[in-house]
Design goal:
The chain is about 45% helix and about 15% strand. The strands form 2 sheets. A 6-stranded parallel β-sheet has the order 2-1-3-4-5-11, with helices on both faces. A 6-stranded mixed β-sheet has the order 7-6-8-9-10-12, with helices on both faces. The termini are far apart. It comes from Ilyomonas limi.
Length: about 350
């Protein structure tokens, strides 16, 4: 049997009132008595009546839906961002349509075109690692489609942006490894053109120079897909470990790079931190339970999603075009555990 949602005419027939009266009662019109409003609302609730979203969108010229483009739902960082997004969207009465690029430019392009064609009111975007051309976003944005960037932002597009202090996170991680006695610290990085990569690389280099250590570019390894493809991480690690002067620690600059670094060391029977120290970016809830427990930079992901959604809905509901945009930079947290503590010989 095909499900049919309750309609205004069903309430009208049951209560003996006109459809227009029912509609005005449900919209709290001053023309309808409180007694009639209560009767209509009570009956509507009893038959699980919900307004037709298409009719509502035509009337309000909004769908009360927002789109989200993330890299990967299975990534704990992005799943926590989604929780932050939905916490605001639910309260504000918006539905959320989530898509994932899986670090593919082509998927990202298809996702944003799908979302725009299905008339979402706006979109929250973190660009994929393959994305270096932003014309697909710029075109929609110039046509009035609200966009807010989070995590991986696009500086060329003037809109709200929410990220963390990537420089500080990388600086603190590298400085901690130096304090722990590591001398030759390598960096596993995301795609070179991404905003987060550039900022984290700058923090890594500044920490080395401030400590009087030379910056060796052969110790900086880029993984185009940010660790989603293990073979990329394996190749980068092999290259680093085959250097004549091998590294004794790594700073891994993303969630997937961190977990795949551990996977590599396990496969190669490399002991952490005895043979290689590690501090990585990670929002996994189990990093403290691993053996050894992982020192990590933890990002305020839920807060990032919450703020991004508030700014997007503010843009959507603004009566006049917004020209003053906010740039929110949240603070990461360094959690020091066993993987960065060099053992005394």
């Amino acid at each position: 049997m095909k499900y049919e949602a309750a309609k205004l005419k069903d309430i009208s027939k049951a209560l003996g009132l006109s459809v227009s009266t029912i509609s005005r009662a449900l919209h709290d019109s001053h023309e309808i008595s409180e007694a009639t409003k209560k009767m209509v609302r009570d009956y509507a609730e009893s038959i699980n009546y919900r307004p037709n979203p298409i009719a509502v969108s035509l009337r309000e010229k909004r769908t009360r839906s927002i789109g989200v483009i993330i890299a990967e739902i299975a990534n704990s960082f992005f799943s926590q961002i989604i929780n932050g997004i939905e916490s605001v969207a639910f309260i504000k009465g918006y539905n959320v349509i989530i898509t994932q690029s899986l670090e593919s430019y082509e998927r990202e392009l298809n996702n944003i075109n799908f979302l725009a064609s299905h008339s979402v009111d706006g979109c929250l975007i973190t660009v994929s690692t393959e994305t270096s051309n932003y014309d697909h976003i710029t075109k929609l944005y110039k046509n009035g489609f609200p966009v807010v960037f989070f995590d991986r932002v696009v500086e060329e597009i003037k809109t709200h942006k929410i990220s963390i202090d990537n420089f500080k996170g990388a600086y603190d991680a590298t400085t901690e490894l130096i304090k722990c006695g590591f001398k030759r610290i390598a960096m596993l990085a995301n795609a070179e053109h991404l905003s987060i990569t550039q900022e984290r690389l700058a923090g890594y280099k500044k920490a080395l120079t401030d400590a009087g250590c030379a910056v060796d570019n052969s110790l900086i390894k880029y993984c185009r897909h940010g660790g989603m493809i293990y073979e990329e991480v394996e190749q980068s690690m092999n290259e680093a470990m085959q250097l004549s002067n091998t590294p004794d620690a790594f700073f891994a600059a993303s969630d997937k790079l961190t977990t795949n670094f551990v996977r590599y060391c396990t496969a190669k029977k490399i002991k952490i931190p005895d043979e290689l120290g590690l501090i990585g970016f990670s929002n996994l809830d189990l990093t403290d339970l691993l053996v050894p427990s992982l020192s990590v930079i933890r990002q305020p992901a839920f807060e990032m999603g919450r703020i991004a959604t508030e700014l997007l809905i503010k843009t959507i509901e603004a009566r006049r075009p917004i020209v003053d945009f906010e740039r929110k930079i949240l603070q990461p947290e360094l959690l020091i555990r066993e993987s960065s503590k060099k053992r005394k010989k």
